Amino acid sequence: MRVSNLFFATQREVPADAEIPSHKLMLRAGLIRKMSSGIYAYMPMGYKVYRNVEKVIREEMDKAGAQELIMPALLPAEAYQASGRWERFGPEMFRMSDRGGKPFCLGPTHEEPFTEAVRDTIRSYKNLPVTLYQIQHKYRDERRPRFGVIRSREFVMKDAYSFDVDEAGLDKSYQNMYDAYRKIFDRLGLDYTVVDADTGAMGGSGSQEFMVKSPIGEDAICFCDACGYAANEEKAYCQEAPACTDAELPVEKIHTPDVKTIEELIAFMNTTPDAFVKTIIYNIDGKIVAAMVRGDRDINDTKLGNIFEAMEMDLASFEDVERVTGAKVGFAGPINLKEKITVVMDTEVAGMKNFIVGACESDYHFKNVNVGRDFTPDVVKDIKNVKAGDLCPKCGQPIGMARGVEVGHIFKLGTKYSSALGCNFLDKEGKENPMIMGCYGIGVSRTLAAIIEQNNDEDGIKWPALVAPYKVVVIPTKTNDDEIMPLAEKIYEQFQDMGYDALIDDRNERPGVKFKDADLLGIPLRITVGRRASEGVVELKFRMTGEAREATVEEAIEAIKEIK
Ligand code: ATP
Ligand code: MG
């Protein structure tokens, strides 16, 4: 491709809402174009990269024996109503109706239509297992679209679904996808970790996420370097301290005027945060709930929400807190609540003695509180976040924390969808059973952005060779020179003949401008044809490593094999 014909424009300025490198660079390099919040068009150069990522995914899925098909994005409501997700998706689902008033949605994920297709196609165990996939646009009205194509409202997902006759079959299908995912992310050159993930309130027997480590990641990951345990913070747990064996002291009510924050309370009581238990009041689907964790801990909303199969949860309003505690905000506790609400206590609190809690009375706390004697929680469950330094649940060594971008998710679903939608098969005995399902997603557009997050510098993108839109750019320093231009053309043609995606920057621009664009666009190999053209000598520069050297034309052609 001749750069003079290329449909692209690089930009110096990027909008203020582009906060992270990949978003900025995709806009600056003109790969994408914003149409609306969380909705992007791919320009030719961006689309080339996108298709290169898609190609790697498709190749590995095909090799794994998965079969590709394509579902519509516009889907009738019925199947989602039958599975319960028409309600569950809530405001995240894009909904509409046709001219006759029949309800539709834009598919946020496609378990339902795949399950229906398999239900209507397969009758017998003889035709199982099967794994199907598609690479297709998904629609989610995200609460907070951001980071460009990392969290957008229209995005591309590779979604696959496996159907088996039993759990052992599912384990195999799941492992097969796990292996394929590793190959995909390895080939794409990503530095990633596979973590245990939450399976949600609806069950499912196992789930893992593929996380690209990055400071901009929206997920927190807990990991143990000693034994390899790794889990999404949503799901991570830790070893708990042995129960305290101190004698129980009599409860004391303490006047704590003007003490509003936990820090003020610690200073006032002259103690440490782990001597407290904090009580946080939530509104979970309209129900008021109290959740208790040790004072130095944070509540894990996923764990708490799972107990109630929550659809919407938030902190309770000030009015609700004041009503159920009978006190100003900041004095909630499990004793003397003014209304009967569900009290959920973290398992760790069960091992504590003589702790401090809010007294459900403005400006008062209780000291020397003990579980069982002074109050009885309704639910005792692990509802805390793990933090760095907690002990690994597998081997007891200290846990570390990192940030990650979730690029893939694999999930043992079980029979949730097959049961709801009647996707059954006849077993050897002629008995009807629901199929055992798994589902497997990769965010294609998010993966592309994650590649940029891990491969960039102040000058622009550094594409790994496999995904680069063009592998090489030939830059003549002058376009009117009758030694330089013919040599540049010759090299460019040779790459084309060899089947490489090549660029020649034939624009009548200063070399500095062309170099800047080549760097921004992240083309792996740059070949500059300049002052030594008459001797047949050119200059090579590798974008990934920064290595530069002079070379003969033959060496320059060979150098394309060095890009990675
Ligand atoms: P997240 O927790 O980031 O919202 P999710 O758990 O909703 O992700 P899945 O439903 O498992 O995601 O979707 C499979 C994959 O699709 C994810 O691993 C991610 O790579 C991608 N994905 C999900 N939501 C978006 C989005 N809004 N924009 C871009 N990619 C997304
Ligand atoms: Mg999501």
Describe this structure as you would to a colleague:
26% of the residues lie in helices and 29% in strands. The chain is built from 15 helices and 31 strands. The strands form 8 sheets. Strands 3, 7, 8, 9, 10, 11, 12, 21 and 24 form a 9-stranded mixed sheet that branches. Strands 16-14-15-17-20 form a 5-stranded mixed sheet. Strands 28-27-29-30-31 form a 5-stranded mixed sheet, sandwiched between helices. Helix 1 packs across helix 12, helix 2 packs antiparallel against helix 6 (167-187) and helix 2 (44-63) packs across helix 12 (444-454). The protein binds adenosine-5'-triphosphate and magnesium ion. Adenosine-5'-triphosphate (ATP) is lined by residues 109, 140, 142, 151-152, 155, 157, 406-409, 441, 443, 445-446.
Based on the model shown, name its key terms.
binds magnesium ion, globular, binds adenosine-5'-triphosphate, alpha+beta, 9-stranded mixed sheet, 15 helices, 564 residues
